[in-house]
Specification:
Shape: globular
Radius of gyration: 18 Å
CATH topology: Glutaconate Coenzyme A-transferase
Structural class: alpha/beta
CATH superfamily: Glutaconate Coenzyme A-transferase
Distance between the termini: 19 Å
Helix content: 10-25%
Strand content: 15-25%
Largest sheet: 9 strands, mixed
CATH class: Alpha Beta
Number of strands: 15
CATH architecture: 3-Layer(aba) Sandwich
Order of helices and strands: HEHEEHEEEEEHEEEEEEHEH
Number of domains: 1
Number of helices: 6
Strand order of the largest sheet: 3-2-1-4-9-12-13-14-15
Length: 262
């Protein structure tokens, strides 16, 4: 029998499960916002959603189209400025979780959202950091959400927009661990369309923790679309979404299919 849910729904549920009660979570538009609201409506009701320059402790009744949507400030505790969120809260270590995405990620969680190809002669240039570099450097932990493709999970990112566990300040410089350059926190997990990856506490290299077996995903599928040799020795099947998680997601979080596309 085919599962009654999609990979996108599994991805959102997997991301929401990583959020804990009473954490301050800096969220952005799209899937991170859906995952955060789902967590807040299920297991993390006292989680504090922070939206840059819009809302602190947001409690939206309906899903905002973006973090600047007026619905994001419904029943919010405070409407801060960007400087207050990125400065006072983030730089003082008061953001527990930051959601990030990008065009490329490597085995150490370095993210590229700047360009494809050499920086001075790019094949394609993207929007850049937009605060992601600050979040990756200063949040207590970060959760990365990406489609799982070989062009995205690469051996070496073309440009480090957001630092991971092992990074380099300049192309010609040696790789250093983030602790050596006084960066706190670090990548906690990568949630993809195939599974959830974590980082080994010693090598800081990415490994597969869970994969969406109920949706037909095999361990070999993940290896086939990952450019680097990813550790799969600890991989186990992901627990499928519960009836409650799917009901809340479909009927309360995004009933119109704004981001979920039912």
């Amino acid at each position: 029998m085919h599962p009654s849910y999609s990979r996108l729904e599994m991805m959102v549920v997997a991301a929401s499960r990583l959020l804990q009660n009473r954490e301050r979570v800096l969220v952005g538009t799209g899937i991170p916002l859906v995952a955060a609201i789902l967590a807040k409506k299920t297991h993390a009701r006292d989680m504090v959603m922070v939206m840059e320059a819009v809302a602190f402790d947001s409690n939206p009744e309906s899903l905002p189209f973006c973090v600047a949507d007026p619905r994001a400030v419904y029943r919010t505790t405070w409407t801060p400025t960007s400087a207050e969120v990125m400065g006072h809260f983030l730089q003082s270590g008061k953001i527990d979780v930051g959601f990030l995405g990008g065009a490329q990620v490597d085995r150490y969680g370095n993210l590229n959202s700047t360009c494809i190809g050499p920086y001075d002669r790019p094949q394609k240039r993207f929007e850049g950091s937009g605060g992601a570099g600050d979040i990756a450097s200063l949040a207590k932990r970060t959760i990365i959400i990406m489609n799982h493709e070989k062009r995205r999970f690469v051996e070496k990112v073309d440009y480090i927009t957001s630092p991971g566990w092992k990074c380099r300040a300049l192309d010609w410089a040696s790789d250093v661990m983030r602790e050596e350059i006084a960066l706190d926190g670090g990548p906690y997990a990568v949630v993809s369309t195939l599974g959830v990856m974590k980082f080994d506490p010693h090598s800081r290299s990415m490994y597969v923790e869970t994969y969406y077996s109920d949706l037909g995903v095999l361990i070999g599928d993940i290896r086939a679309v990952t450019e680097f040799d990813i550790d799969v020795s600890r991989a186990r099947p992901m627990e499928p979404p519960t009836t409650d998680e799917l009901t809340v997601l479909r009927e309360q979080v995004d009933p119109e299919g704004i981001f979920m596309k039912y």
